[in-house]
Amino acid sequence: MDKLKTALRHGWVNTAISRGTTPESPNGARILIVGGGYVGMYTALRLQRKLKAELKRGDVEIVVVTPDPYMTYQPFLPEAAAGNISPRHVVVPLRRVLDQCKIVIGEAQSIDHAKRTATLTTLATQEEGAEPEQISYDQLVLAPGSVSRVLPVPGLADHGIGFKTVEEAIGLRNHVIEQMDIASSTRDPAIRDAALTFVFVGGGFAGVEALGELEDMARYTARYYHNVKPEDMKWILVEASNRILPEVGEEMGKYTVTELRRRNIDVRLETRLESCVDRVAVLSDGARFPTRTVVWTAGVKPHPILAATDLPLNERGRLKCTAELTVEGVTHAWAAGDAAAVPDVTSKEPGTETAPNAQHAVRQARTLGDNIVHSLRGEPLETYSHAYAGSVASLGLHKGVAHVYGRKLKGYSAWFMHRTYHLSRVPTFNRKARVMAEWTLAGLFKREIVSLGSLEHPRAEFELAAGGKPPEDPKGSS
């Protein structure tokens, strides 16, 4: 929440929460949405459109609690890291999109659904040093998403880099270019070798796409260094299972391994990261790689807020839900996305749940919003039903792999499908137009190779000029 304190201090956000009681009209309701990601934003947007009259009359209030004032379109993070898209254009400002909702920048600490109350930590409570405050609600939507699943690997907390937020994506881009700068100027061969070794842990979409885009970017950037060549760099992908990208199918997964190895990327299957103490990545197969870069993308886990509720959870820590997206066994509680275990009614296998991915999250949000409206109006609820269409993945500029509706694509055609699909899915016409403009300009001009690592410590130069001490790591290197 440190970055949120800065926003409050400069007056960039308004954090006030009305403490009044909920409306008392027959259909009156305060709808509390916890989370501003795919499900949170799209549910609020759906409610905003469906309840125009009620919102105008004041019969309904929609409150969205989110740690960030924007929604991140995560499929574009690899392209943002590679410099193909501006970071601003992979996020959607919630206040502009949800202009009929009350946006609260903060986090839910606990939820007592029996009492219909949530305990929140906001920017104001942190700045004032006050106790967390409570807000009452009539309808609850739990959509906090997930957090990175970090295993107790020695040294990982000190040297690892995540890849789940736009800040991490840009920080990783800056870090990679800075390592190339270090390698270009050092006289120590050990430091040079460690700087040019990049280890990615996790063979899912995040790890494979991040590695593919950044390796492609670094390969291009190397042409502007007089003493750093693409063959000097080592890129290692570590995956604990025997395949990568399981969502695109076994055949396309094997093709991806072949394609990455063709680019001299070291793909190690059935291998785990055992340690990265003292900037040495030690793998379960005995390999050791001195490195200054360990990117951790090995899965996610349910958000901790779920364990701080009185709502039913399954063995994996996700909310037990019905096919109508209500929380099982309780009333006035809803959930979808990564936080929810939703039955897959399209599957022939009993007990199957929908996959926790963006494709389902966006569609579930639409049904969830409609069902809340149906509930308020005393109408029958809809069942969420969507057969998984398939997956697309980018492996770098003009490189990709796809398995959609049974059709398998690779290379340029898969990359083109990846771009067109996600362009159609990124929220708001504003962002679609800006992303399209950037892609068009990128085709006419050379790629950006600028590192802005100093953004991670924006006051460092001023503090030094004022007689203070510079940060230990002014460029943000791990």
Automatic annotation (TrEMBL):
Keyword terms: FAD, Flavoprotein, NAD, Oxidoreductase
InterPro entries (UniProt xref): FAD/NAD-bd_sf (IPR036188), FAD/NAD-binding_dom (IPR023753), NDH-2 (IPR045024)
Keyword match Hydrolase: no
FAD/NAD(P)-binding domain: residues covered: 30-364
Entries under SUPFAM superfamilies matching the protein: FAD/NAD(P)-binding domain
Organism domain of life: Bacteria
Molecular function terms from GO: NADH dehydrogenase activity
A matching Pfam family: Pyr_redox_2
Record has Oxidoreductase as a keyword: yes
PANTHER family: NADH DEHYDROGENASE (PTHR43706), NADH DEHYDROGENASE-LIKE PROTEIN RV1812C (PTHR43706:SF45)
UniProt family annotation: Belongs to the NADH dehydrogenase family.
Name this polypeptide is given: NADH dehydrogenase
